[in-house]
Specification:
The structure holds 2 protein chains of 2 kinds. By secondary structure, chain A is α+β, with helices and mostly antiparallel strands. Chain A is 16% helix and 37% strand. Chain A is built from 3 helices and 11 strands; from the N terminus they run αββββββαβαββββ. Chain B is mainly β. In chain B, the strands form 6 sheets. Chain B has a 22-stranded antiparallel β-barrel. A 5-stranded mixed sheet of chain B has the order 8-13-14-11-12, with no helix packed on it. Chain B starts with a helix and ends in an 8-residue tail after the last strand. The chains are: A alpha+beta, B mainly beta.
Chain lengths: 193, 778
């Protein structure tokens, strides 16, 4: 009696198992029949630096750091930032994704704005440039600065590079650049005339 | 120099053994137990052939022979229904012997199984985890457990992801044979561990050397063979429960198995088995590592039917795991990595927690296997095995991609594999015995999310013929094998917003010639030479872009050709009553060894500059030696020494990177006397020393390889008898002194020290639900 129960319950279990083994749809790897897309992922490929000289007549200038085909492949294209000495600029940073290949960047800046409390942008004029360029963040997530908007102040003529870093600091943001992981780290050549 | 030190050390210990010539007063004590169940065997016959003296084991399987003169003897232990066991023993002093008798499988298990156990690839060194080593590694990952074998190390990403490394080679150069089916998982990176549950297996062994002819062309470095216990052979139901706990990570492991056979249907047996594991954040001597917990849930079932000449069985298993990836190891770019390394240790922000958050991996592996065999004659049989494997890997990044839900994996891979294998065994009365077989494989891979490897379809077949010549009189056995494999890959490469289909075909012969020389009763020399090859893998041909985990840009090369290895393995086994030495020497010459070579200049990306690696082919040469020495000392002490050396070069150039450092281990063990309640009690203390890996090419790594380290480990175990049931208990301590160390083959060495003291507890309880005699239950 006892073993009969065992036999039936076991047969049942075996059948269930056998079907569970076969239930999955076998996906064909051909692209036509799969839901996979080449660029399903959204990435940041482009950083646009918009600078407006604070005297009212000046118009906005735009400098781009772009690696449209992602890591590897073609080298990124990098604009040189030209600034006047002894001036103050308002800066706006825009982040875009060009990986859809249509030649224009899909703007993801607003997504960064939504997650402002998890992000920090750091500006780091390097070497000699540090003496003639000073960058101050002017926006806030309510508690700490963010850096999407900033003020660039130049003094004497100089050339060099500025490093711009986007840090992802979920739960660890403390206003400094140390915690978290680096999402973006680029350098623009700068010429101050 | 280090070799010399080692040699001196070992020979000193060796020298101790030449003590103890004496008169005929020695006592031979022993115990006989059943191999699989570990139950003691009463009334077994014990015969010391040279003296014609014998005795019979008592109700607990124990026996004793007194007044034995020093010398060499042949001990034969036999019992009805079991294979008799013959041992050559050397008597210096009093001696204790454990004899395990296996049930005679001749009609129970069918012909093929018996053949495979003992005779497959007899000219290659094969090491099996002993019952004790299986106990000591209970609840640990496969990679961790296998490190108990000499010459086997592990490539790790933290404590939860470990891949076995044999002779310095790993991933797609080591084949894992899981219950007779070649494991097809995602072996594309060092952070992809084999998806198997060691607790579902009774026997785990490693063939060190190219087992390619028998198992498939990519078993270049060797094969890891996992075999579950045979299904129950008599009516009734029994089972086992394993429990283990680990202090570091507060890990708990529960595993159980139920085995049964129906009384009504002759020969119909079944098994259900399952394992659950949960671990929280582990800690180094100083800090907890955030998000290093994991969860695992595995189960399997099997049904088998066995008659005198026919057997068929079905097996299904599922492996599910969720692995946290240490937060501090998920770095954005080289600046982060350099900072982490300079900081020396991670920030301990959370302390202990079981919580697993992003980044993490979720991996599922399913295996369905059906097998049937028929004994076609007294000395030959056929067997057909079908296997289907489904593997799904989902990797979640810490940063939800912009515009995508955080619940969506950043990377998803699905791999489905079908295999079919047919075998014909023959074992003639004459000197030839062998095996002819063929296999077919069909596999496809799809990916979603971040590009890692393209979709592909792979189809292939192989044929092999292995033959052994065992002349009656000769001291040399010969083994000869040849194999042909063909593989076709259709790869769908994303390019300019389209998929471009690229076809690749690979085919080649592999072969080997081996000899087993029995020089006297004590020495066996195994020599094996031949060639093996493997086609380039899809990731080696088509990876392109930033490899996050490795903080490097990797480029594949679609023009790669097959990699061919020529090998020579010499393995010496020397055994006397008190001493056992296993000494393996091996050498591989690779024609077209595929590896990722550092590029001269870094690649500039929006995340900063990264070092670049390109898969390339070079001629490479590997040679090494593994030594194991076991010696029975006086006062119930046993010494075990292990040492492994390996050198690997790119021919005419520099060293190859990523090779395990030289290591040696000394263990001293004390066995307690058995009594009616407690048996096989032992306590051991081991010292493991790993040298610094200083042989790496320049600019191949981000940071210097870590310094040498020495760890102290301890083990304690015993079997507690309640009637016929032995309850196995054990305690293990790893890194007893809480030493700070880093291992070259652990990727976490960039960010943090390795684990602090790990204390583990384990217990195995066997039980019977339904006795053999089913009539009393009906």
């Amino acid at each position: 009696m006892n073993s009969k129960i065992w036999f039936y319950s076991f047969t049942l279990l075996a059948l269930v198992g056998a079907f569970s083994a076969c239930k999955k749809d076998e996906e064909e790897p051909e692209p036509e029949t799969t839901h996979t897309h080449v660029h399903e992922e959204e990435v940041i490929t482009t950083v646009e630096l918009h600078l407006t000289k604070s005297d009212s007549t000046a118009k906005e200038s735009e400098f781009t750091w772009s690696d449209a085909d992602g890591p590897g492949g073609n080298e990124p294209s990098i604009d040189t930032v030209f600034l006047d000495s002894s001036s103050v600029y308002k800066s706006d940073l825009h982040f875009g994704d060009e990986s859809d290949g249509h030649g224009h960047a899909h703007d993801v800046t607003h997504e960064l704005e939504e997650e402002a409390d998890e992000h920090l942008i750091c500006f780091d004029p390097m070497d000699k440039l540090a003496q003639s360029l000073q960058v101050t963040r002017t926006d806030s997530d309510g508690k700490y600065e963010v850096g999407l908007k900033s003020e660039w102040k130049t003094s004497g003529a100089s050339t060099g590079k500025i490093k711009i870093t986007l840090k992802h600091q979920p739960g660890v943001k403390d206003g400094s650049c140390s915690p978290g992981e680096t999402d973006i780290e680029i350098e623009f050549p700068v010429v101050i005339k | 120099m280090q070799k010399l030190v080692l040699a001196v050390l070992l020979s000193t210990v060796f020298g101790l053994g030449l003590w103890g010539q004496g008169s005929c007063e020695h006592v031979l004590q022993g115990a006989v137990s059943e191999d699989a169940e570990q139950a003691p065997i009463p009334f077994a016959g014990i015969l010391l052939v040279e003296t014609s003296r014998g005795t019979v084991s008592d109700s607990l399987g124990r026996f004793e022979l007194t007044n034995i003169c020093p010398g060499q003897y042949t001990l034969v232990v036999s019992h009805l229904g079991c294979e008799p066991d013959t041992q050559f023993i050397q008597v210096f002093g009093d001696l204790r012997i454990e004899v395990k008798l296996a049930h005679n499988h001749q009609w129970l298990d069918g012909y093929a199984l018996v053949e495979e156990r003992e005779q497959e690839l007899s000219t290659l060194p094969q090491q099996t985890l002993s019952e004790r080593e299986m106990q000591e590694s209970m609840g640990q990952s496969l990679g961790e457990g296998l490190q108990k074998l000499t010459g086997v190390t592990s490539l790790s990403t933290g404590n939860s992801i470990q891949k076995p490394v044999i002779h310095g080679l790993h991933s797609n150069r080591v084949l894992i044979l899981n219950n007779g089916i070649r494991q097809e998982g995602q072996q594309w990176g060092s952070e992809h561990a084999p998806e198997v549950d060691p607790l579902a297996n009774e026997r785990i062994s490693v063939i060190k050397g190219a087992a390619a002819v028998r198992y498939g062309s990519d078993a270049i470095a060797g094969a890891v063979i996992l075999e579950p216990a045979a299904l129950r052979t008599s009516p009734g139901i029994d089972g086992k429960i394993h429990l283990a706990g680990f202090s570091n990570g507060r890990q708990g492991v529960v595993s159980g198995v139920l085995d049964g056979q129906f009384a009504q249907i002759q020969g119909l047996s079944w098994r259900i088995q399952g394992t659950a594991k949960k671990s929280g954040n582990v800690h180094t001597p100083d800090d907890h590592l955030e998000n290093t917990g994991f969860e695992e849930l595995d189960f399997s079932w099997a049904v088998g039917w066995k008659r005198k000449r026919f057997y068929a069985d079905v097996f299904y298993s599922q492996f599910n795991t969720k692995l946290g990836i240490f937060k501090g190891s998920h770095l954005g770019n080289m600046t982060d990595l350099r900072k982490a390394f300079e900081a020396g240790r991670p920030v301990d922000t959370v302390g202990f927690s079981y919580e697993i958050s992003a980044p993490y991996q979720q991996v599922e592996h399913e295996l369905f296997k059906a097998r049937a065999g028929l004994q076609t004659g007294e000395h030959h049989g056929v067997e057909v095995i079908y296997g289907r494997q489904y593997n799904r890997r989902r990797e979640y990044d810490s940063h939800g991609l912009f515009g995508r839900s955080k619940d969506a994996p950043a990377l998803e891979l699905e791999l489905t594999t079908h295999t079919l294998e047919g075998l014909w065994n023959h074992h003639n009365e004459g000197p030839w015995r062998g095996k002819i077989g063929g296999s077919v494989l069909s596999q496809d891979n799809t990916y979603g999310g971040r590009f890692f490897i393209p979709n592909y379809k792979k189809e292939g077949f192989g044929f092999f013929w292995l033959e052994r010549l065992v002349p009656d009189s000769s001291v040399i056995e010969w083994e000869l094998g040849i194999r042909y494999d063909y593989q076709r890959q259709a790869v769908y490469v994303p390019q300019d917003r389209q998929f471009r289909r690229v076809n690749h075909q690979f085919s080649q012969f592999s072969g080997n010639l081996g000899a087993l020389i029995k020089a006297g009763k004590k020495l066996r020399v195994r020599v094996n030479t031949g060639s093996a090859w493997r086609p380039p893998q899809v990731n080696e041909m088509y990876s392109n872009g930033l490899h996050h985990g490795a903080a490097a840009v990797e480029f594949g090369d679609s023009t790669l050709t097959s990699e061919t290895a020529y090998f020579l393995t010499v393995s010496n086994e020397y055994k006397t009553g008190k001493l056992r030495v296993d000494w393996d020497l091996y050498s591989y010459y690779f024609d077209g060894f595929i590896y990722s070579k550092p590029e001269p200049s870094p690649v500039l990306t929006i995340r900063g500059a990264f070092p670049a690696f390109r898969y390339t082919q070079v001629d490479a040469w590997l040679m090494g030696s593994d030594l194991q020495l076991i010696y029975n000392l006086p006062f119930n002490l046993e010494y075990r020494g292990k040492a492994s050396l390996l050198r690997a070069w790119e021919v005419g150039r520099d060293f190859l990177n990523g090779m395990p450092a030289d290591r040696m281990e000394h263990t001293l063990e004390y066995s307690f006397k058995n009594n009616s309640r407690i048996r096989d009690a032992y306590v051991s203390l081991g010292v493991l020393h790993v040298f610094k890996q200083s042989r790496i090419p320049p600019n191949s790594d981000f940071v210097e390889p870590p310094e040498a380290y020495t760890l102290l480990n301890a083990q304690l175990g015993l079997a507690l008898y309640f009637g016929d049931y032995p309850i196995q208990l054990g305690v293990g301590v790893k890194n007893l002194l809480n030493t700070r160390y880093r291992d070259y083959l652990n990727r976490f060495r960039y960010y943090s020290d390795d684990l602090g003291t790990q204390v583990s507890f384990r217990i195995t309880v066997p039980f019977t639900l339904l006795k053999n005699d089913t009539k009393t239950h009906q």
